[in-house]
Structures are given as C-alpha cells and as structure tokens.
Design brief:
- With 198 residues, the chain is of the alpha+beta class.
- The chain folds into two domains: 1-126, Beta Polymerase, domain 2 (2-Layer Sandwich); 127-198, no CATH class.
- It is built from nine helices and seven strands, in the order αβαβαβαββαββαααα.
C-alpha cells in the first residue's frame, strides 16, 4: 500500500474516532489498520471500527453518524439484525462499523491502545492479542494469514494465556473445538520460522 493511501485511511480513522470521542463513545480499529500495527501491512481499502454501543442504543449512534453516507438502505435495521452497518466518509473511504455485542468486545475496547501513525495523529487500535482473537473467529483465509503475520512479528511479546482463555470461551459459545488447536498450530509454525530467520 502506498504511503498516500495509508495516510488517507489514517485521516479517515482519526476523523471517525474524533466524531465519536466528542460524544464520549469509545471506539477502536480492528481490521487492516490494526494488522499494519501488529503484523505485516497489507492492502486495505476500508476501515473496520468496533464501537462501544449496544444494539439497543443504535439510534444514538446513527444520529452521530449523520455526516457519513450509509451504504445500505436501512442502517438501523442492519445494526439491529447484524450488529454492523457500512458507511462512506467524505473522502470516499468505506467504514465498516461494528457494535460492541459481547463482553469480549467491551474488554477489547477497554484494552485498546493509542498508536501514533504520523506526528499529531493517533489511532486507537485493538491490542495484538485481541486482534488475533477477532481474526481466529473468522473463517476467511486472509484473516488466518493476518494471525500468522502478527504471531511472527510479535513473537514472545504475545500473552498466549490471555488469547487461549478467550478462545476457550468462544469454543464453548460457538461449539467449535478447533480454535485453540489452530492457534497453537500457527504459533508453533511461526515461532519455528522466526528462529530459523534469525
């Protein structure tokens, strides 16, 4: 991704976060922007934002987001049914807005960190561990590739116990017993590769 393209995305994230911050609503980036911080940067044309708003309070959020162009016919219904909706900002950047639906979302937003991408512009981003957990819950190939890049780059700095504790809870909630196994497999392969690279 070019420097200019990344700067445009950062500007959009900062503007979106500032819009919500003025209303006292915590928010964090969880997609390609977070991967650029904790793993290997990859091409991304949109931004994924997790917002500390419940489905019941979606009307408040929609009122705040009036300056953004909705990309679905009924954003209220999309938030109500799916917990997410899509918008475009004045720069033409697509913003995927996801509500904090779980205790994990709330925990992750509380743990998020301010990262200075460029002087004077900080973006609130989920931690490396929380990014891994979000990505492990996805079945998309690119999300598993993101996990691999974060594990390889962060190495021993990762809190494996924290990650596996949440993955165990999601295994139970989703009746999916593969999450911890798959994470450990990625961890083992990437740790071995890191050692051979040095």
């Amino acid at each position: 991704m070019s420097i200019n393209a990344m700067n445009d995305l950062i500007d959009s994230v900062v503007a979106f976060q500032d819009c919500l911050k003025k209303e006292g609503i915590p928010v964090m980036a969880i997609g390609g922007i977070a991967v650029a911080v904790w793993g290997e940067p990859r091409l991304t044309r949109d931004i994924d934002m997790k917002v500390m708003v419940s489905r019941e309070n979606r009307g408040q959020l929609l009122a705040i987001l009036r300056a953004f162009t909705p990309l679905q016919e009924d954003s209220d219904e999309s938030f109500r049914r799916l917990g997410l909706a899509f918008f475009r900002d004045s720069n033409g950047v697509r913003i995927d807005v996801m509500l904090a639906d779980t205790i994990f979302d709330e925990t992750a937003i509380g743990r998020a960190r301010d990262i200075a991408f460029i002087p004077g512009k900080s973006v609130r981003v989920c931690t490396a561990e929380d990014l891994i957990i979000y990505k492990m819950l996805s079945t998309r190939t690119k999300d598993r590739a993101d996990v691999e890049s974060v594990v390889q780059k962060q190495g021993d700095a990762l809190d494996d116990a924290y990650i596996e504790n949440w993955l165990a809870q999601f295994e139970e909630a989703l009746a999916d017993s593969t999450l911890i196994r798959d994470f450990r497999k990625i961890r083992e392969i990437r740790t071995m590769q890191s050692k051979t690279d040095h």
